[in-house]
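not sure who needs this but someone in the group chat was asking about DUF1295 domain-containing protein from Pedobacter frigiditerrae so here u go. i didnt clean anything up, its just raw.
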Amino acid sequence: MDYKHLLFIALISLIACCTIMFLVWLWAKKVKNAGVVDVFWALNFPVITIITSFLSEGFETRKFLICGMFLIAELRLGLHLWQRVIGHLNEEEGRYKQLRKEWGDKADRNFFFFFQFQAISNVLLAIPFFIITANPLTQISILEYTGIGIWVIAFIGEMIADNQLAAFKKDPKNKGKVCDTGLWYYSRHPNYFFEWLTWMAYFIFALATPWGILAIISPAIILYLLLKVTGVPNNEEQNLRSKPAAYKKYQETTSSFFPWGKKDGRGKR
């Protein structure tokens, strides 16, 4: 495995992602909606996939498998976010409104760095992908098949969670209510859980490749971002602002991340 070549692919991917995010920042600045960053964060991964599929030197069947997994998952997420964000371009999501309010006059400058950080995170998270596509071994191992199986579960789970929430929000009768049906009955953020599980699948797939253990960085970063930075905290703050009583009750009975049974309101399951 030629690590200099891997670094070259990562550098090309970084330049591409940073350029895309710069253009997206210019657009976001014009339309005053920073939420577009979410859409292009997801769509940057297909860009990385295309670059890597042309430049990597690994076993073609393995490249086809992992490229297919990446493209299907991230295009689905990107299109879902496109419908959610671009479909309501004149209405910025609450978490970005709050950041804009907190940053004041420095909002545009801070969003520039925020967008670039998203581009950097794209490349860091693609580490399993870079490693896997460089693997020259011509036999697909049991670990790789296991990774594919977990990926299928995660992909279906995230798609179901997203569709359930979208359907709930479309119903005008649910205005001001909390979605607590389907997968949302077991977790306050099932979509985030299955997104993380997708990255765990890539990590397990990568373990069949020399130095694949390095791929642990991707699910670790995703878990940290979802639980501590841009995922759960921002989403919970927004929900508490928009529907405080209902969401507080939901918090008391429902697992934050991992799907689990309901609590009785006193912290017991």
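also Residues 1-139 form one domain. if thats useful
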